[in-house]
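User: Structure tokens for this complex, please. No commentary.
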Amino acid sequence: MDRRTTIKWVLAASAAWPLLEKRAARADPALTARGYGTDPNLLTNYRPGEVWPLTLTAAQRRLAAIVADIIVPADDHSPSASAVGVVEFIDEWVSAPYPAHQRDRTVVLGGFAWLDEEAVRRFGKGFSDLDLGKQHGICDDICDESRAATVRRAAAHFFALYRDLTAGGFYSTPAGRKDLNFIGNVALARFDGPPPALLKTLGLS
Amino acid sequence: MPFVTAKTQKNHYDVIVVGSGAAGGQSAYTLCMDGAKVLMLEAGRNYSPESETPMFQTPDMAPLGAEGTPEKPFGFYDATVDGGWDVPGEPYVRASEEDAGRFEWWRARMLGGRTNHWGRISLRNGPYDFKPHSRDGLGIDWPIGYEDVAPYYDKVELLIGVYGSNEGLENTPNSSPGCLLPPPRPLVSDLLIAQRAKRLRIPVIPGHRAVLTQPLDFRRSPARLHPGNATAQKILAEDMRHRAACLWATPCGRGCAIRANYQSTTVHLPPALMSGNLDIATDAMVYEVTLGSDGRANGVSFVDRLSGKQRHVGARAVILAASACESVRILLNSKNAQFPNGLANSSGKVGRYLMDTVGSGLSGQIPLLENLPPLNEDAADGHQMYVPWWLYQEQHAGKLGFARGYHIEFGGGKRMPGYGTGAGLEWLTGGSYGAKFKEDVRRYYGSFVWFDGRGEMIPNDQSYCEIDPKVKDKWGIPVLRFHWQWSAHELGQAAHMQKTFADIIDAMGGKPRDPPKTDGAKAIAPGGSIIHEVGGAIMGSDPKTSVTNPWCQTWDVDNLFITDGAVFASNADKNPTLTIMALAWRAADHILERMRRKEL
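Assistant:
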């Protein structure tokens, strides 16, 4: 399913998300920000917040980091998502003034609200205050849209989008490139193609 | 200073060239190198690839990981300036918003136009492609044949630098000896596709792209391109020495600061400027070709976008090279008593036979490509290899159910990680997250391949553009309204593409990301979205049914020429840019000859 059509899902599910409608109705700073235009300087190193203001609250950023690190935790290969700026990336994304990003904003903020409500419903406190095991318990129910219960379908859609955003932010960084052993984007005097030994192994020589 | 302003611009030139892309660049280059005084008018701003191209910038340096937005549809680092599917203040109208009747119009408002970001795929039309009606009774024959254009394909390839190989396949012409640069080494995925497609009797051969896989031959090519013209040879030799060979990194769509690929701004314009014969005015939005009392074009009127003032400049001849639809718009807006329906439109054919390329794509995941060792697969940025149309005999025997063919562009490899690298993997991972997700991303990174079909559309009476009676752009210039309709041939072709791609993915032991679409209407990309729009002022041998003669000269106005894709009488599966340049060179040669004979 195209995540750009998410808003339909979210609105359809909003009966289950009483907070969402209130959030969507609130005057939102991102809606008045401007984009980078059709002729931005391409050589500048942009940081999140430089082009349009970041808009997540401190509580939202705390939750954003916890969920991002559940999706991309530190391991032997690379640091966690939040350690390499993914929260700032996501904040920039959902604060961007473009229509698709505003739709994603609705999904992400709705998903954050759902996580807290679900945590309170199941464990009596907010998602950020749960231990990792309980957080995983909630995520397991929504990590695959195709298997999620109907009542959790919109939440699963949020999780899919949030995983894309987290991975998108993470694998765009030097740490993410290193994790994947990316060795391109360097000037070469010549391009020799794949090593013959590899081609032989693959039956392609 | 060859970039001119209202103060420094002369009042009269030999030739005015409207537009600075493939057609305008080639027209101006050919004219200037042979001594004609040319004014080039570009609607967008000046642009310098050497100083503006983000060569090694990584996604984390850009807003939103460099992903596309309505302001930069092909991504933040795409070379396009002030352009895209929507240009602020410059609307156009669609007669239909339904998918089947939808036409999208990509524009770039910058020096060099769309050549700054294009794919650089440079394929020759073959002999069949100029005589389609003679072969199958559909569409329209060109008034010229492959043999008329072949010498100009050679010239363009030598000038701009095109890699490829001569395979001698049907309707897939060889270049003359020495014209092509060696093709780049293929990637693992290229070789796997080639091996498995071969089992399906689908040929995979080296691609043709305007990328310098080695330095240009600055010692021999200038003499071959400009025989008897020592000045031109010297200028070109010097300029060729300043174009570096590819450094095997950074996407060509960003442009190339070292001038290793073709864009008008790095290949055509520098030597033309060096000749001293070219003036360029940017931010000059041409809206009308003006006629003298003798019925000949005497210049053009344009809006200086910086001051908003309307101005006029004169010339002995005018070349429209503003892109197919923009040139049509200028003609239709150039109404007068003699041409109440638009200039050079006594045939009523201006705006007619608008064509794009049939496009459809499918991607898949290939287990054999999982967990490969680290590889630098930036290569030539794609199209190391491709599939030319291969079913001429089956089609001729009536076995396919649709007319005309397509070629296949494909790709794969461990490209620069970014937003898409870990996105949408649920169909493979079952929704993993955490440490398992990171393992999955490592496993699948570089294991995907994609296929895009690029097929021939047959011109029809329902696909055309005209001036909208109401809507004007921010300069007050009336805008285009587009009408669009595919025929069963294009839809059948798109469905055939899907099946072919699924078959190849299957032969590779992989699985397609989405089920192949069997309904061509669902498989085909909207009109205009492949950005190969041509036609609208087609060339022909009869003034009643065409807009220009075989020399791109309008039948109605002796000194008015159109050298962009508007003159295409058919739109072969081959990407149009190389043919646009070959025809522009040929037309410019013709103009020079007539100027020498004092006919212009």
